[in-house]
């Protein structure tokens, strides 16, 4: 009798659980499908037309032709749209002068959220874009394409029975983590004696592409750590003892492992690490990504208090604090390299090689330190530098393009040391 009652109770619980699960799923589907499919398709189409017109100009240099080829731009009332087309033309001309160009592109939007309130619609979507380089004017060893993911928010207004795009913004604009859900990270004072690198001077030595300056490849695990050591120790809850350093040939640098990591995780982050692109106004994932790649390349952990700029580590256990500020914040990372030299600053960005690092200060007049960190993914035989970074996620963007889109910024080029103590 008891066994029958238990069986009945178990079946009842399963039924209740199934009903609850079905209700939750129904609520989720209701929320997802609350906007008619034809309306969603129309809004996405208008938003994609805005993006396509901009990339069209980067390829063709023809603003009016781009509008004709993307007729739904007639439904764009965003005051900044025309300015973006003009900027795209300026970028094309600037890159052409440096023998860089695009021949085609592919772009699409994946909807993350869509809400309609009255006559206003808000569309949050992820743009996935490949831009194919014009290899007829570029070095034969240039990459085929530049790839990237960008998070957008598009706002529409219903005028009569027609939706019109009235504004758009990038949600993951380049920038470093400025804090965690528990605390903000204060900026460090900038040392006036540190001289920024010249972003446009030609290379003093036209070193070849990534394979010419690297050692033999190594296998990299899903955590981004070389497989010679992949077992972090337990961590202290007080932020003073962390995962054991990974040692490769006595702290020697493996550039090939770094480059492998960049290409594998530039677009899609390594799920074994926390993703700081989701911290909203607290910043982005750029320095976290760079730290992961350097760890894969053999940089050893420096244990100690997480706020100290002389330490650098990451803890996989999930116990707070989960990493040093130098691991996730561009300014603290910059100070870490100064405090524990693992790289040297050089006078010209063009003298960097694949696996090297660039720190960026977007607004030096504010004296609030570095705000972005990125790495060199490739260097072609004609000296063109290509970049990999997060927030937004990019691989094989030319430094020339990044420079053109960052007016007033100062750049600090770091040449990584092949070994250090």
Question: Main attributes?
Answer:
single chain; 421 residues; alpha+beta; Nuclear Transport Factor 2, Chain: A; 2 domains; ten-stranded antiparallel beta sheet; 9 helices; 10 strands; 21% strand; globular; disordered N terminus
Structural class: alpha+beta
Secondary structure tally: strands: 10
Provide a count of the helices: 9
Unreliable segments (pLDDT under 50, ≥5 consecutive)? 1-32, 208-250
Number of domains: 2
Largest sheet: 10 strands, antiparallel
What fraction strand?
15-25%
Terminal CA distance: 73 Å
**Average pLDDT metric:** 83
Q: What's the helix-strand series?
A: HHHHEEEEHHHHEEEEEHE
Shape: globular
Helix content: 25-40%
Question: Which radius of gyration do the C-alpha atoms yield?
Answer: 24 Å
Signal peptide: 1-26
Keywords: Signal
Protein name: Putative amidase domain-containing protein
Region (Disordered): 175-208
Outline the secondary-structure elements.
Blueprint: H1 2-32, H2 37-60, H3 63-69, H4 81-96, E1 102-117, E2 120-133, E3 145-159, E4 162-170, H5 255-265, H6 286-296, H7 325-328, H8 330-339, E5 343-346, E6 357-361, E7 372-379, E8 385-389, E9 393-398, H9 399-404, E10 410-416
Antiparallel strand pairs: 1-2, 2-3, 3-4, 3-9, 5-10, 6-7, 6-10, 7-8, 8-9
């Amino acid at each position: 009798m008891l066994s029958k009652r238990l069986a009945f109770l178990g079946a009842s619980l399963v039924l209740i659980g199934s009903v609850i699960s079905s209700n939750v799923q129904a609520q989720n589907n209701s929320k997802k499908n609350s906007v008619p499919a034809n309306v969603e398709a129309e809004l996405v189409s208008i938003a994609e037309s805005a993006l396509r017109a901009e990339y069209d100009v980067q390829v063709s240099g023809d603003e009016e032709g781009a509008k004709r080829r993307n007729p739904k731009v007639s439904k764009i009332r965003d005051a900044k749209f025309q300015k973006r087309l003009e900027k795209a033309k300026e970028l094309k001309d600037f890159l052409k002068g440096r023998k860089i160009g695009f021949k085609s592109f592919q772009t699409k939007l994946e909807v993350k959220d869509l809400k309609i309130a009255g006559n206003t619609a808000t569309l949050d979507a992820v743009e996935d874009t490949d831009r194919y380089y014009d290899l007829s004017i570029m070095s034969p060893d240039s990459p085929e394409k530049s790839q990237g993911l960008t998070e957008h928010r598009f706002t529409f207004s219903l005028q009569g029975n027609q939706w019109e795009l009235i504004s758009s913004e990038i949600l993951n604009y380049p920038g470093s983590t400025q804090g965690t859900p528990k605390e903000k990270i204060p900026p460090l004072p900038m040392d006036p004696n540190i001289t920024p690198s010249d972003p446009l001077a030609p290379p003093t030595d036209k070193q070849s592409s990534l394979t010419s300056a690297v050692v033999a490849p190594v296998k990299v695990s899903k955590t981004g750590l070389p497989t010679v050591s992949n077992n972090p120790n337990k961590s202290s809850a007080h932020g003073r003892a962390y995962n054991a350093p990974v040692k490769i040939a006595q702290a020697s640098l493996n550039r090939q492992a770094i480059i492998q990591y960049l290409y594998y995780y530039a677009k899609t982050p390594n799920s074994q690490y926390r993703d700081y692109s989701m911290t909203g106004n607290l910043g982005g994932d750029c320095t976290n990504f760079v730290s992961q790649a350097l760890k894969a390349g053999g940089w050893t952990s420096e244990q100690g208090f997480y706020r100290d700029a002389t330490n650098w580590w990451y803890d996989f256990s999930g116990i707070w604090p989960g990493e040093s500020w130098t691991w996730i914040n561009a300014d603290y990372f910059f100070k870490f390299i100064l405090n524990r030299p693992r790289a040297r600053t050089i006078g010209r960005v063009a003298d960097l090689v694949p696996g090297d690092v660039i720190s960026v200060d977007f607004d030096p007049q504010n004296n609030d330190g570095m705000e972005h960190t990125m790495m060199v993914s490739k260097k072609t035989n004609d000296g063109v530098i290509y970049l990999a970074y997060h927030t937004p996620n990019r691989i094989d963007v030319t430094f020339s393009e990044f420079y053109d889109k960052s007016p007033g910024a100062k750049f600090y080029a770091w040449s990584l040391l092949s070994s250090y103590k």
